[in-house]
Amino acid sequence: MKFFFEVGEQERHLIEFQFNQIWGNLSIKVNGEDCIKDFITASLELVKTYRFEVGYQERHDIRIDKIRKLFLAGFRKTKYEVYVDGVFFKEYEGR
To answer: Could you read off the pLDDT of 40-54 as tens digits, one per residue?
Structure first.
């Protein structure tokens, strides 16, 4: 699953989220630079949260919730909810 979104009014930041459901590699980049890297092999958590800040003069708190299904999660679509400054921004779903 791969998606992009932009945040900021005066300071624009491009955030790229990429997760390989088969291999478990997860990467979040801000303006092309690595922000978060994770490796997920197995998890009992239904929701995994990734939180970070972007910006210098115009700061934004970004939260991405990776929400997996209860049964056969590796074979089903995963939902991703994006929040900017605590407010729901967008939802993505895919593999």
So the answer is: 877 778 899 999 999
| CB proximity list for 22: less than 8 A, separation 6 or greater | none
What distances in angstroms separate CA 92 from CA 7, 20, 31, 32, 59, one per listed residue? 16, 15, 20, 20, 23
Secondary structure class of 37 (helix, strand, coil): strand
Q: Is 73 left (phi over 0), alpha (psi -120 to 50) or beta?
A: alpha
Tokens, residue 36 = 């978060």
Domains of the chain: 2-94 (2.40.128.180)
Per-residue pLDDT band at 30 (split at 50, 70, 90): very high
In sequence order, what are the beta bridge partners of 6? 14
